[in-house]
Design goal:
With 126 residues, this protein is mainly alpha-helical. It has one domain: Up-down Bundle (de novo design (two linked rop proteins)). Helix 2 packs antiparallel against helix 3 and helix 3 runs antiparallel to helix 4. It is elongated and about 45 Å long.
């Protein structure tokens, strides 16, 4: 997990980081115990965490600048929701707190990149 944010070649490649982040979340939740609480949280976490990258990819095929911005805004909302579910896992379950914190660090960095991109695109005149 640590290699995602430390690999300088890909540090600024948002699409790639989102993809790797999705893979790490999938691997993490696949190890959860077979208990109802984990089913619910893992379902929500998988949906929002994988949605980040999906919306970044979808933005690239948007038909307009407005579409592009909208998909980035949706990706940012998904990143914020991901932070919520990871926080719940960390604070209310027996999930591996080290892995949760690593995932939180990465999604916080991704959300900063998305937020910065949205602000830049909204303020740029074309």
């Amino acid at each position: 997990m640590a290699t995602i944010s430390q690999d300088s070649k890909y540090k600024s490649d948002l699409k790639y980081r989102c993809y790797l982040f999705s893979i790490e979340v999938i691997k993490f939740v696949s190890k959860f115990p077979n208990q109802r609480i984990y089913w619910i949280i893992s379902d929500q976490l998988l949906r929002c965490a994988t949605s980040i990258g999906a919306n970044v990819v979808e933005a690239k095929s948007g038909s307009s600048r407005k579409d592009f911005i909208k998909f980035y805004e949706i990706a940012l909302k998904s990143a914020n929701e991901t932070k919520y579910w990871l926080g719940l896992l960390r604070d209310a379950t027996n999930a591996d707190k080290i892995i949760v914190n690593q995932l939180l660090v990465e999604v916080i960095e991704i959300s900063k990149m998305l937020g910065s991109s949205v602000l830049t695109m909204k303020n740029r005149k074309f």
